Automatic annotation (TrEMBL):
Gene3D superfamilies: Chitin binding domain. This is Chitin-binding type-2 domain-containing protein. It comes from the Eukaryota. Pfam families: CBM_14. Residues 1-24 form the signal peptide. The lineage of its organism: Eukaryota, Metazoa, Ecdysozoa, Arthropoda, Hexapoda. GO terms for molecular function: chitin binding. Residues 25-81, 82-133 form the Chitin-binding type-2 domain. InterPro entries: Chitin-bd_dom (IPR002557), Chitin-bd_dom_sf (IPR036508), Chitin_bind-dev_reg (IPR051940). GO terms for cellular component: extracellular region.
Amino acid sequence: MKGLSAILVAILVVVSVLAQLGSAEPTCRSTGKYLTSNPRDCGSYFYCFEGKSYYGICGPGHQFDESRQSCLQASVSECFPCPVSGTINMPHPTSCQKFVLCFLGVANERECPAGLLFNQALRQCDLSANVVC
């Protein structure tokens, strides 16, 4: 019985920790109103008002800029999940004519030469006939 109790306690602790890690809602100050970024999604934000948070979404192709307190035209370099080490070409989120060069965790938007598209399998620009877009 003690073993079962220990297992249940361990499960409850794990579930509690995971629930806290999974929460993207900010802790808002008890007074004032302001916008704050969503750490899990650059295309959304939270509106904090008198201690409560309300979820907001930017329009298509836009992302939230906390310093300007506004949704602005999206830029891949500001919000692309690159690996923190190494160099790799990744598919662009909206265009097959472009790709994202990730270098040491920093995203750099690049464009394929005319007539070529980014081939995800080869991780390089290729003839359009060889690319599924």
